[in-house]
Amino acid sequence: MWNTIRLDPVAVRIVDTPAFQRLRYIRQLGFAHLVYPGATHTRFDHALGVYHLARTALRILGETDQRVRDRGGQTDLIPYAALLHDIGHYAFSHALEELEADRLPGDHEAVSARFFQSNELKEAMEPLGDDAAARIHELIQGRGDDPLRGLVSGSLDLDKMEYLRRDARFCGVPYGEVDVDRLLQGLVVLDAPEGTGLEVGVHEKAVSALESLLFAKYQMFRNVYWHHAVRSATALYKRIVEEAVHWELMAPGELVGPTDEELLGEIRRRSLQAGGMAASIGERWIPALRNRRLPKRALEMGAAEMEGVQLPEWLSRQGSRRRALEDALAARLDLLPGEVMVDYPSKRRMLELDLLVLRRSGRVERMGDQGLRGLIDLPLVARELYRTARVLRVFTLERRALPVDTFMGLLQNAGGDGEGGHHGNSPPPPV
Question: What is the CATH number of the domain that holds 37?
Fold first, then answer.
């Protein structure tokens, strides 16, 4: 996709570590291959692509900006942060990050620090300096004072450019085409008008390519990442892991490290060994996931159906209130506890836009929630796209039909009008 990718000697050493080789066995798109059979590409492939784009971006920026040229080539940590930005991913990528906080040690960016502690990775990064691991970890989290950190984590990071094109290619869909070359050529290092220092921004001439990225991301979420069968498989997988932690088959810390098949295999082995109610995980749920016998839609409500409906944001998170609602739905539908899953995906940063723009006049302005005068109101468009992409679904392990009135009544009983709710026809939360 990017033709030949050349690795420098330090990158080769990093790639050859067990911590990085593990990414060969973490699917980039979790369960999307159950819908799009070609989507078996991995975090390993993606990480190499982001590294390549990082080196390309630094070369382009260096051609026009002396400040970038003065950074020092080989010791620059940006390409290595790009290479390692997904080192902490859980099995099946992002799915587990939707679990309740006490079920996980943290998101993949936070737990990546554990992998930096491996002796092999420490040794591989020795040429970068004693504090390289800490500085790279800062870059991955979008923190620190490096003016180029936005290339690794931000509204216009190279991660987005890479995964959108790669995911679309392997899924065989036309939605993810992004004008990456135009975006890279439009990158500039700018002084923030707020006086906070240098940041990576984009020239106004590349805003049309930025628009293509925004719409590509929306289309990929709507048609691939949040496809109903992908979300069904994800919901079942989350329930499997949640129950495994509940029954103490797995400690939260043990979720860090296993690859896709290692985690499912270990949970199945332990559940069968434990017996009792926990055995249903290995006897029924994991085989159903592996054989694509996925939960069915009992209810689906898109943006049109949710017009004027108040939904609490806790529906998007695993937690006691949502589990109480699911168990109440299971009882109403004559199903066992755990056999109903409410799915209301949320990704606040899905279409986030907070970046500097160099206007043709030479003025530097920030594109934030208010947009920029004279340009398409991208933040407003982003909020509308996010609202229309979200779909509330109720999945059941056995086919059932759930009337909207029944769902809404049980939702009210579960505290559905509590803090955090918003109306479907009112402005959605910031994205």
Answer: 1.10.3210.10
One-character DSSP codes across 177-228: ---HHHHHHTEEEEE-TTSS-EEEEEEGGGHHHHHHHHHHHHHHIIIIIT-H
Domain count, the chain: 1
Contact indicator for 385, 296 with CB cutoff of 8 Å: no
Give the per-residue pLDDT at 162.
96
Query: Could you report how far apart the first and last alpha carbons of the chain are, in Å?
Result: 30
How many Å separate Cα 46 from the centre of its chain? 13
Burial code of 333-367, b = ≥16 C-beta within 10 A, e = fewer? bebeebbbbbbbbebeebbbbbbbbbeeeeebbbb
Q: Residue 362: inside a domain, yes or no? A: yes
pLDDT tens for residues 368-385? 777 777 777 777 888 888
| Alpha-carbon distances, residue 379 vs 25, 179, 203, 370, 375 (angstroms) | 36, 20, 17, 7, 11
pTM tops 0.70, yes or no: yes
Tell me the C-alpha distance between 151 and 132, whole Å.
Answer: 17
